[in-house]
Structure formats: C-alpha cells, structure tokens
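Repro:
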Amino acid sequence: MAIEVKIPPMGESITSGVLAKWHVADGAVVKKDQPLFELETDKITSEGTAEVAGKITFKVAAGADVKIGQVVATIDESAAGAAPAPAAPAPAASAPAAKSSEQSPAVRRLAAETGIDPASVAGSGKAGRVTKGDMLAAGEKPATPVAAPVLPAPAPKPAAATGATGERQTRTKMTKLRQTIASRLVSAQHEAAMLTTFNECDMSAVMELRKKYQDDFVKKHGVKLGFMSFFTKAVVHALREVPGVNARIDGDTIVQNHYYDVSMAVSTDKGLMVPVIRNCDTLGMADIEKAIGDAAKKAREGKITLADLEGGVFTITNGGIFGSMLSTPILNAPQSAILGLHAINERPVALNGQVVIRPMMYLALSYDHRLVDGKEAVTFLVKVKQAIEDPARLLIGA
C-alpha cells in the first residue's frame, strides 16, 4: 500500500513554501520517522519525516514551490523490508576511450587548456564520467600516468588575475526565509522612527560571579551560567522600571504589555531567527540558560515552530560572539526596542581618579522614537548597565 507524503501544516499564516532539498534518494527505502525533506517558508524552515517505512517515490523535485497539504511523494509499505538499491558499479578500467568520448564541453575545454587527458582522471559523475570539478582537482596534483608516449609538458599558462580557478560569480535564488528577513528589516526602518542610544558596561562583577559559582552551578543545574541570563534579568528589571519601552504601536493605539517574553536572536545557516523565551520574570537563571540553549538548538536544527517565534515584547541580540565592537541593531517589529550586546574587551577606564584596566562591553539600544522618548531610552539603558555592574540590584529591585 502506498502512503502519501504531504507538506504538513505550519500555522494559519503559512500556505506555501519551497521544498529546498530531499534528505533521501528517489527510490530509497526509508525508515519510520526518518527525515525526508527540508521545507523553507517565509517564516521558518522545518523538516518532513516519514510516517511509515517503505520505498519512497518522489512526486516533486527539490527546489519546487509547494502548497501546504500537497503530495510530494509516496511510500510503498510493501517494500519496507527491502534492502537499499546497490550503488552503480564503477566503470571498467579497460574502457578509458568510452569514458573520454562522453565528456562534456567544459571537460574537453579544460583538457585542451591543461593538457590533462580525461582518461587519466578518476570520474565522480554518473557512471564514472569525468566532471569539470574532477578536471580542476586533477590540475592541482600530478595526473595518474597512462600507457602513452611521454610528451613534453605544455608550457604553464599565466595565473588568472583572481589567483583562483573556477567561476568568478555564482547566482543563487534567495530562500523564502531570507526574502522575508530582508523585507521585514527594510519595513522596520521605513515604518519606525528608529534611533539608537549607547552606553558602556563594566563586566567585572558578572565575570567574577560566573568564575566563583560556575562549577557549583553546572553541578546543580547541568548547564553553564552564561552572560545571557544576566542580561535577560537586567532587561526585565529595566522594563519594569521603564514600562514605556514594554509597549508597541498598533495603528493609532498604544498597546502596553504587562508580561516579559524576551526574544533572543539566533544565527543559523538559514538566516537569523528570533525565538521567544516566555515569562522571563518568573524564571531562574538556570531556567533561562536552559530555555535559551533549547531554543537555539531547535533553530539551528530547523525544528523551530511559528509559535516559538511569536509574542516577544523585547529582543536581545549578541553580536559580540562574532567579535562585533559596536552596532546599531534594527527593531524586531512590532516591538519598540532591541538591545545589542558586543564583544568584551579590556580597556583603560577612569575609576575613583585612577586609570585601571577593566573588561568593557558597549551596549546599544535601538528604539522607536514615535513611542519611546530619549529620556526613557537612556534611563532604560542605564538601568541595564547598573544591573550588570552591580548584580545585587536584581535581588533587591533597586
């Protein structure tokens, strides 16, 4: 019996996507719950899995636009116990002439330019055919000798201006997720009166706390004490002190939030995703660290859901993990503010009339000036700075 493989529902707002790639070969025998394909939508990237075991037959090629509920393959359950089809046998070594005669124009052109006989190159293409990549790779190492008269080596050609072989350009269609990210970033800049205010933060106190309690924290909670839990708690503290930042504009209405679901920017190979950590005001440091780790793992594995990305009131983005010294983060609409963290660098600073070396981080708060005034923005950022430089404030609410 053949079971249909359909594009699963992703949420009411998602009606289509792109079947980016198949994780299995057409005609392969798959196992139940085995990942079959990767689906890219304008909001998330997810995987489709096999509901049953059996032999799969594709109905849609990789790269095709698909609709939610569309049949993209079938699985024949009667073939569940069959062994995978054997790989095609390698071409016989006694047929170099046949292999050479089937080469593409690109291979023949490279053979003429380099003097490398395609018959001497091991082919990685279908049925052992030599590809352009095989020829380029062969040009970087001595060719395998063949039974032919030894001829003088051709004169070396001048190196290309780029200093590298291969195409000078490639063109790749943007994924739906990348298109949406681009559109939302441009929209945020066009629709909001965005402004950024800066401050710097001495990380000494937090670093000392982490050093002092890290081992005990890991033993008790099974997760490391990172910087993000401190900044998350500092942001919640600041949102309580300056509630105007915890609001958004909806048409001609101001929507005031009374909860603290904080979005965390996560970099993935598919693009930037911003999962939400719920109820950060009630979570302990260990719970926050675990929630951030779980959300980042889901995002990078393509298992994030639309529900994981919705409902945040404020965003934290950490460019410091990539070495960024300073930036002006763009709002995560419809939120009204975003905090940018940066690299920690030791710098000379004035303290009590003396110049001392301290681990310093620049903080950047971008905000919607239509809703948040400069006084509120600066006060908010100062509250974050104070909470990080003196974490005891987080305990007493000062």
